[in-house]
Design a protein that fits this description.
283 residues, mainly beta, Immunoglobulin-like, Jelly Rolls, 2 domains, 5-stranded mixed sheet, 0% helix, globular
């Protein structure tokens, strides 16, 4: 998966940068700045271009960072703290072996530093085989991915929600019934989602995991609710994690609650929010 982010903010003295738009082989678009700024102009550095090899991995993955502007240095962190010029200096591809979040920021001696760019990644510790999967909601005809197997193929979607890695649901809660090949001790549920408020795609209101009891009332194992958005943050890939005491399970029900109606501060206020899912992980 390739994430290309470049944003250049200019405090103008009457001149703006020249740029060219170059389509790439992986359907992303890269904006290349030619850095033709007037002498003495103060500007903020573009955001580093961040590329992640695999958002979901079993052994390891790699992150690369780039910003082609003379004398620029990129610093990064892996502990979720904000990078400063005292953080780890980027000089080559970063080998990732644990789940976490990488944050990076570009610095220059004569210009304002860039914004922070970030990406999260998840290590699949013990893959669990499923026997059957039933989704009790119908994805929109334009966002059907590869069917139910989309949720368990261990392939992370990109910010482009139109790819086959995503299932898109409009205004519905999504209930997923899973039968595992064998009984497993499980202590964590991860729901991988997309947040793209500008496209009316909101994060879930809550996630739940239930134990299915044959012929009896299902048992709620754990539930986590999420705070409603009060403004439009940048598009982001999200891993929503629900931890609970280890429990031996074979038949499971997962419920992902839709955000409901779009709030009043948004242009789409009062209409059903979209919910996009690309992966369910049990560990």
């Amino acid at each position: 998966m390739r994430i290309s982010l470049m944003l250049l903010l200019v405090v103008s003295l009457g001149c703006s940068p020249a740029s060219s738009i170059i389509p790439t082989s992986d359907s992303t678009t890269k904006v290349v700045q030619k850095n033709t700024f007037a002498q003495g102009q103060i500007f903020q550095l573009a955001d580093p271009v961040l590329s992640l090899e695999n958002g979901l991995f079993k052994e390891s993955t790699k992150v690369t960072l780039a910003l082609h502007y003379p004398e620029t240095k990129i610093y990064y962190t892996l502990d979720n703290s904000e990078p400063t010029s005292s953080s780890q200096l980027y000089d080559s591809a970063i080998q990732i072996v644990q789940s976490g979040t990488l944050k990076a920021k570009a610095f220059h001696p004569n210009h304002l530093p860039s914004n922070i760019v970030a990406v999260s990644f998840l290590k699949i510790e013990n893959p669990i085989s499923t026997k059957s999967i039933e989704v009790n909601a119908t994805p929109h005809e334009n966002y059907q991915g590869k069917g139910t197997k989309t949720l368990f193929d261990q392939k992370k979607g990109s910010l482009n929600f139109r790819t086959s890695e995503w299932l898109g649901f409009k205004g519905e809660d999504v209930e997923i019934n899973i039968t595992l090949e064998n009984e497993h001790s499980i202590k964590q549920l991860v729901v991988s989602t997309l947040r793209d408020v500008g496209s009316w795609i909101f994060p879930p209101a809550a996630i739940e995991i239930w134990m299915i009891n044959n012929g009896q009332t299902d048992t709620l194992i754990a539930k986590k609710e999420f705070q409603k958005l009060e403004k439009a943050p940048p598009p982001s890939l999200k891993y929503l994690t629900l931890d609970f005491p280890a429990k031996s399970l074979k038949e499971i029900k997962i419920i992902v609650r839709n955000n409901g109606l779009i709030p009043d501060w948004h242009d789409g206020k009062g209409t059903p929010a979209w919910l996009f899912l690309d992966e369910i992980i049990l560990q």
